[in-house]
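Section 5: illustrative case.
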């Protein structure tokens, strides 16, 4: 795991590493502070709703500090490194965590005309791993918005279970089995299971479009441009891998 936590140093701003897009995220005591952005008002409402609904798998929004930064409760633990292969237990818990988040927003006012609120970036890199090295919380809700659950399921299932770089330690059959384990742990109903591979492919294509747009924009930061380049190269490779092995993954979802 790549550590997201730091030593417990109260009242001193300690930079938190790991983010690819948002700069100047720091820990201060038992809180996390980050610059406000256009998505902040919805994030406030969502986190307050989750807390009121009894969902404990997200930080609490604590207000705006004296420097105009959003303030959240700090969640101890670690987040996974990019493309880190998860164990079966971790995959199963990730599926249950995502289902609990979805259920907490299903039919709420925040979902509007949609079924629920999606995180839209719920990969292992935005899950906090705690006791027994299992994911217990989601972080970074900047992209959260009303949507279809398959938007999140496809993205998380891809990043948690499928990667061409794992083939030596996790052959195709093992990855297909983990994909099924994630979907079973989420509890996805049968009528939607046949749409999971399409949702994964759609997530990959969306990522490619986002990366292309960033790379065409002359005013993006060097950090964001480098991240977009990595997304482009990695997603193109994994998109080809999924397409080449689509039948094996679809069979696992039958």
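Designed sequence:
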């Amino acid at each position: 795991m790549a550590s997201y936590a730091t030593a417990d140093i109260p009242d001193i701003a300690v930079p938190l590493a790991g983010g690819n897009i948002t700069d100047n995220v720091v820990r201060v005591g038992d809180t996390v502070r980050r610059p406000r952005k256009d998505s902040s008002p919805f994030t406030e409402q969502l986190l307050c709703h989750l807390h009121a609904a009894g969902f404990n798998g997200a930080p609490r929004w604590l207000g705006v500090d004296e420097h105009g930064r959003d303030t959240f409760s700090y969640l101890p633990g670690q987040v996974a490194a990019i493309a880190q292969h998860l164990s079966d237990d971790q995959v199963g818990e990730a599926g249950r965590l995502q289902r609990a988040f979805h259920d907490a927003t299903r039919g709420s006012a925040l979902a509007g005309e949609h079924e629920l609120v999606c995180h839209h970036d719920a990969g292992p890199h935005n899950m906090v791993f705690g006791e027994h090295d299992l994911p217990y919380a989601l972080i970074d809700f900047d992209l959260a918005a009303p949507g279809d659950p398959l938007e999140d399921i496809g993205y998380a299932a891809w990043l948690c279970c499928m990667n061409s770089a794992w083939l030596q330690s996790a052959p195709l059959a093992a990855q297909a089995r983990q994909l099924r384990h994630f979907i079973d742990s989420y509890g996805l109903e049968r009528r939607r299971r046949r749409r999971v591979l399409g949702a994964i492919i759609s997530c990959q294509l969306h990522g490619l479009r986002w990366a292309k747009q960033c790379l065409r924009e002359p005013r993006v930061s060097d950090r964001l441009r480098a991240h977009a380049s990595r997304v482009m190269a990695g997603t193109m490779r994994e998109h080809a891998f999924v397409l080449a092995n689509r039948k094996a993954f679809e069979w696992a979802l039958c």
